[in-house]
Amino acid sequence: MSTEQTREATTQRSRWWEEACAGFVATIPMTFFMLSTQRMLPRGQRYDLPPEMITRELARRTHLRLRLTKKQLLAATLFSHFGYGTAIGALYRPLKRRTPLPAPIKGTLFGLLIWLVSYLGLLPLLKIPASAQQEPGRRNLMMILAHVVWGSTLGTLAALPWPSHTRK
Questions:
Q1: Is 166 among the domain residues?
Q2: Side-chain half-sphere exposure of 47, counting CA atoms within 13 A
Q3: pLDDT for the residue 166
Q4: CA 45, CA 39: separation in Å to the nearest integer?
Q5: Fewer beta carbons within 10 Å, N or C terminal of the chain?
Q6: Owning domain of residue 46
């Protein structure tokens, strides 16, 4: 492999990593948004947020729920929520490169796409209770807006100039 090919491969890996990092960081304001807006829901809708519901259900299916304390479940929830935000952030690059829109708008569209795929596709397919069809309208709105927060933050961060880690 030539030096130029090696440099290009390294650059592509670092760019993938940039979107993954942006996805991780974007999960922070998303999480704060969900926690703060959950308090504004009607009393009967203030139950666990979807990341915890999903983690609990997956733990139950793998028989881990019987062994997890509440603190361990919350730690697993944070780990999986940030892991999902990071992994999905890494998939942002094709939209980022092919869509001629301002970065926050591209990110918002991506966030909405992720909500659609996750809450109307993946969760119902896996029969996980947090799917959009099983949630009240206000909770769905909260989660849609949380994905707008995540996506717009992701788009903004991914558009920033990142320091280069390659030597010339």
A1: no
A2: 9
A3: 46
A4: 9
A5: C
A6: 3-159
